[in-house]
Inverse folding.
């Protein structure tokens, strides 16, 4: 299996390591049913001659290997723009899962937000973000999704007797 090193935001690297890390392979292997897998596959390029393999990064990613198409031994390079696109996709996965879990636990199980965030962070081994930051992000997301109806203005009128 061909692997590469990527440097992405710390909380996203911790999330991927907690969710998709394979001990026997020693890297993060994205399942092929996710859009992220196909995005990585589409963004792989031939490594330029003047570009050595990455030695530093906070995540080791196992490259997709399919029967037909790109050979990971040749197509094993992700540029800066590609890494930012992948990072954004991982961030969407991270926050989608967190928001769904917060919403479900509050509505169905009546579990407080702080407890849910603590369990989420413990499940994936996330230490680089605080609980408050994740809860505040959920509040901002909830305000965008569930906007309150605007009430009409009531004006005081003076009655003449």
């Amino acid at each position: 299996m061909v692997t590469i090193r990527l440097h992405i935001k710390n909380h996203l690297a911790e999330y991927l390591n907690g969710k998709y890390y394979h001990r026997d392979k020693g890297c993060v292997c994205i399942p092929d049913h996710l859009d992220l897998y196909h995005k990585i596959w589409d963004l792989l390029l031939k490594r330029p001659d003047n570009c050595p393999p990455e030695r530093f990064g906070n995540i080791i990613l196992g490259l997709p290997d399919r029967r037909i198409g790109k050979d990971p031994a040749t197509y094993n390079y992700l540029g800066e723009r590609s890494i930012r696109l992948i990072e954004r996709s991982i961030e969407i996965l991270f926050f989608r899962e967190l928001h769904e879990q917060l919403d479900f636990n509050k509505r169905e199980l009546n579990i407080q937000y702080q407890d849910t965030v603590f369990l989420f962070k413990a499940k994936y081994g996330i230490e680089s973000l605080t609980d408050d930051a994740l809860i505040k992000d959920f509040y901002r997301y909830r305000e965008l999704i569930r906007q309150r109806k605007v009430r009409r203005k009531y004006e005081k009128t003076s009655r003449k007797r």
Q: What stands out?
A: Strands lie at 3-6, 21-22, 27-28, 45-46, 59-62, 75-77. Helices lie at 10-20, 35-43, 80-107, 113-124, 131-145. The CA atoms of residues 41 and 69 lie 10 Å apart. Residues 80-107 form the longest helix (28 residues).
